[in-house]
């Protein structure tokens, strides 16, 4: 099974809206050792100018994951999940994610490169809020290891 | 804030145990069993149960957030996953982060992270672009 080169440039339908819950942000914050009061305490977050508690920078992965699931389950993608390794990851923010946000993500396959027997897929997920305003773009490079 | 390129702005270590991995699996929704089952990790040829790369990435930025005092001041954050972090069932693993100023442009800076476990670098090109506190 090989990765379908025609995936390059493909844009997927937007994901169902994801409502960012305050307790989910607290749970994620505890898991990544985020102890800043702005991540946990609504009063501290408001004092810093936010409407509610702020998610840690990598929280966007929870929403991005919904788009990567679309990519991996695309019938003609040719991606064998058991051979996928996470190569690199980037988040570019217009503003941080805050509890109460309703987020929608749209994935675009930015590039597919083959190197040796491996395929490198760069997937860009643009995450917007309920008003359609950009919040963060999450970019992942997935390495699909070739058959030995 | 007066800063110089090369200045270390934060240093911290994070002990990881299997509990940390289960907690991150639940919080993130990444339930790949290579992050909590020795038998599955062994069967796919891994040296042991590995920390989620995204857990290492998530923890590694926290010393920078604490230095800034506000998670919203992180404008861009990228890493390359260069080496897995094996988490021993009994003694766990430790991730050590050093955050150094790489570049200053006006009211923004690039902070370069060195992230190691067992004295080996586990993240490459780990860079955080931040808005500097006024």
UniProtKB/TrEMBL annotation, chain A:
Every FAS1-like dehydratase domain range: 9-137
Gene3D superfamilies in alphabetical order: Hotdog Thioesterase (3.10.129.10)
Molecular functions (GO terms): (3R)-hydroxyacyl-[acyl-carrier-protein] dehydratase activity
SUPFAM superfamilies: Thioesterase/thiol ester dehydrase-isomerase (SSF54637)
Single biological process term from Gene Ontology: fatty acid biosynthetic process
Pfam families per the UniProt record, alphabetical: FAS1_DH_region (PF13452)
PANTHER family for this protein: HYDROXYACYL-THIOESTER DEHYDRATASE TYPE 2, MITOCHONDRIAL (PTHR43437:SF3), HYDROXYACYL-THIOESTER DEHYDRATASE TYPE 2, MITOCHONDRIAL-RELATED (PTHR43437)
Family per similarity comment: Belongs to the UPF0336 family.
Protein name: UPF0336 protein DF220_09795
Native source organism of the sequence: Homoserinimonas hongtaonis
Automatic annotation (TrEMBL), chain B:
Highest taxon of the lineage: Bacteria
Residue ranges annotated for the MaoC-like domain, each copy included: 9-103
Classification via SUPFAM superfamilies: Thioesterase/thiol ester dehydrase-isomerase (SSF54637)
Family: Belongs to the enoyl-CoA hydratase/isomerase family.
PANTHER family from the UniProt entry: (3R)-HYDROXYACYL-ACP DEHYDRATASE SUBUNIT HADB (PTHR43841:SF3), 3-HYDROXYACYL-THIOESTER DEHYDRATASE HTDX-RELATED (PTHR43841)
Protein name as it appears in the record: Acyl dehydratase
